[in-house]
Design brief:
This protein is α/β, with parallel strands linked by helices. The chain has nine helices and ten strands. Helix 6 runs parallel beside helix 7. It has a domain at 48-59 and 91-251: Rossmann fold, CATH 3.40.50.300. It is globular, with a radius of gyration of 18 Å. The relative contact order is 0.18. It has helices at residues 61-68, 91-101, 117-121, 123-128, 134-143, 159-171, 189-206, 217-220, 243-251, and strands spanning 17-28, 35-46, 50-54, 76-81, 84-85, 102-106, 177-181, 210-213, 225-230, 233-239. It has a six-stranded mixed beta sheet with strand order 6-7-8-3-9-10, sandwiched between helices. Strands 2-1-4-5 form a four-stranded antiparallel beta sheet, covered by helices on one side. Strand 9 (225-230) and strand 10 form a beta hairpin. The longest helix has 18 residues, at 189-206.
Length: 260
């Protein structure tokens, strides 16, 4: 495992913050083809909190998450995971940070078909050359209800079970933060509710920090807060969301920034 050196650390954006973006902008193209995907976004993700990112199609929500997770570059501003500023890292250090301190859950599950559920779950540790903390692994597997399915390959699991494997994989390394990109987008409502419940439990029972991009007001209702983007800008925030409140807020968007 490659440790991220201490000299890459910068002052923490604020106490109790797992990740933060400061003045974050992302611009594609130039001249007449210039597109501003993110426009000077300031946003902090507090430790032990479940945040949903919402907004109309093309508003920049997935771009924001990908930049915050170190999966995409940005034009200006800064991104911090804990006290580490991502721009201070070289490619090797950034890879190590993503592997060791960030968990990912994707809409398409991204499981390796030749590996068992257990092998998929522990894959980040295997790649890092680390053994599993057996007590933590058992706790995560129990929370997502997979104890009886660990020897099965993805083709032997339902979509909901595959996404539960992906949730467990994201949690197994005890990351600083877990990012989910439409994690229930390929699931039916029942399986989606199970996965969202597991993410909720990971925050409540394990103290995990979770950030999820979603277009679904029901999914957002599982979060502690919802932040709304429009035209690449942060335009609103809601705490203790309910599906009805989120739906009403989403109806206010007409493709232009609305600060309501």
């Amino acid at each position: 495992m490659t440790a991220v050196p201490l000299e890459t650390s910068v002052p923490h954006p604020a106490p109790g913050v797992a990740a933060a973006v400061l003045g974050l902008s992302k611009v594609y193209g130039s001249g007449e083809n210039r597109v501003v995907a993110l426009d000077r976004v300031d946003l902090a993700f507090r430790e032990g909190e479940y945040t949903a990112i919402m907004g109309p199609s093309g508003c920049g929500k997935s771009t924001l998450m990908h930049c915050a997770a170190g999966l995409d570059s940005y034009s200006s501003g800064s991104v911090h995971i804990g006290t580490t500023e991502l721009s201070a890292l070289d490619d090797r250090q950034l890879t190590a940070l993503r592997r060791d301190r960030i968990g990912f859950i994707f809409q398409s599950f991204n499981l390796l078909p030749t590996l068992t559920a257990l092998e998929n779950i522990t894959l980040p540790l295997t790649l890092a050359g680390r053994g599993a903390d057996r007590e933590w692994l058992d706790r995560v597997v129990s929370m997502v209800g997979l104890a009886q399915r660990l020897g099965h390959r993805p083709s032997q699991l339902s979509g909901g079970q595959q996404q539960r494997v992906a949730v467990a994989r994201a949690l197994v390394s005890r990351p600083t933060i877990v990012f989910g990109d439409e994690p229930t987008g390929n699931l039916d409502s029942r399986a989606g509710a199970e996965v969202l419940g597991f993410l909720r439990d990971s925050v409540r029972e394990l103290g995990q920090t979770v950030v999820m991009v979603t277009h679904d007001p029901v999914a957002a209702g599982y979060a502690d807060r919802v932040v709304f983007l429009s035209d690449g800008r942060l335009v609103d925030e809601m705490t203790r969301p309910t599906p009805d409140r989120v739906l009403e807020r989403m109806k206010a968007f007409d493709g232009r920034a609305h600060t309501g």
